[in-house]
Design a protein that fits this description.
The chain contains 3 helices and 12 strands; from the N terminus they run ββββββββββββααα. Helix 1 crosses helix 2 and helix 2 runs antiparallel to helix 3. A 6-stranded parallel sheet has the order 1-3-5-7-9-11, with no helix packed on it.
Amino acid sequence: MKVSKGEIFERVFINEEVNLQIDQEADSQVKIHVINASFAITVNQLGEGCKTEIYALENLHGSDSVTAETHVTHAVGGGSSNQLIKFVLSDNSRGRFIGDLKIAPDAQQTEAHQTNRNLLLSDTAEMRTQPQLEIYADDVKATHGASTGQLDESALFYMQQRGIDKQKARQLLVNAFMKEIIETISDEQIKTNCLTFFEEEI
């Protein structure tokens, strides 16, 4: 699909598999959220001054398996992109992130960020992450990073020392991890529904 010059495209996908290819014209804005679903999103910034945001939250249980795939290309300069992909994995769930961020030689004065953060809540959950950053321009700001870990035991201990039981402390930490994604949703009703759903699910 094409997002025309100056157009704003914003969408939240919940429990819905997503396969999107988007070409952005100058000064257009794309903001996509994916909640609890596999997805493949390709975005090509073909005009100057584009803004792209991709956020995803995968809260997996049992034998759930989800693949999150992003391909963002800055073909021209003056644009920005931000990707934040988070997985919370319990039981025997499996997650995979494939991230491809490219900045072309003509895409000067681009700012691009790609981040994948993963939280393992069991010893049998598994996460694979494959971030890739290709930069062919000199005047850019670009970062990418990936981290996978467990709940902070010192934080759990600290909260228990202050009278919060372990299960509640665990819930608070997981909620805080997920909330960063949910807070970026513009629609207040959808945001509230997501916060309530995940608080009840943990």
